[in-house]
Amino acid sequence: xxxxxxxxxxxxxxxxxxxxxxxxxxxxxxxxxxxxxxxxxxxxxxxxxxxxxxxxxxxxxxxxxxxxxxxxxxxxxxxxxxxxxxxxxxxxxxxxxxxxxxxxxxxxxxxxxxxxxxxxxxxxxxxxxxxxxxxxxxxxxxxxxxxxxxxxxxxxxxxxxxxxxxxxxxxxxxxxxxxxxxxxxxxxxxxxxxxxxxxxxxxxxxxxxxxxxxxxxxxxxxxxxxxxxxxxxxxxxxxxxxxxxxxxxxxxxxxxxxxxxxxxxxxxxxxxxxxxxxxxxxxxxxxxxxxxxxx
Length: 295
Hints:
Layout: E1 2-4, E2 20-22, E3 31-33, E4 36-38, E5 41-42, E6 63-64, E7 68-70, E8 77-79, E9 82-84, E10 87-89, E11 115-116, E12 120-122, E13 129-131, E14 134-136, E15 139-141, E16 173-174, E17 178-180, E18 187-190, E19 193-195, E20 198-200, E21 231-232, E22 236-238, E23 244-247, E24 250-252, E25 255-257, E26 285-286, E27 290-292
């Protein structure tokens, strides 16, 4: 039996479809067996900034379990299933709005959300039994940071152009195939295949440009680029204090990829140009196959 969740691929937003959501204390007597689950996708972007000029963008929400989510003491049995082409993508931060004479500085971009467990997510209190499962081409992707707004121009010699907003930072990404959250007492994978999966951290948002000064004064400073974030465990990841036992499994051809920091905004023109914003910091990728947190 094939369950096509009908979700959109990574990079597109606004249409989320997860295959199964276990969230009511299910036990091992709740059995998911013999299904092919494909095209799962979950993501919730930050809503556009509201409130007028110079307003910060909203943060993207974390997303988990593109195909299967186990939360709130849910510990079902998952066996003899195939999970393919499923994505948990953190929501993208929305852009800050540009400044104007009433709010001269640009708004900061919103932060991107975490992406956790492209195929299967297990929270701190859920211990599903996972046996004889094939996971292929699934992805956990953290959301992109929003861009900062542009500073407003100034015609007054003593009032510099507005400062550009800072770009939004990026959330962490864990477990392209499976993610076990911090403090989980232990999840066991037995005869599980995880192949061609990836965990990908998004890029920081770009800083907004500083506003110009047309009245003989100083240009505004550019906003700083947003920082990227680390990516952990292309095949599977277990966060700090969690437990993950892997027995008779195949984990191959998986990848962890970090993002880039956003570009700092340009300084505005004036008698003396505003300084350019600093570029955001890059990040690191850990564990192309499996990542275990410290502790």
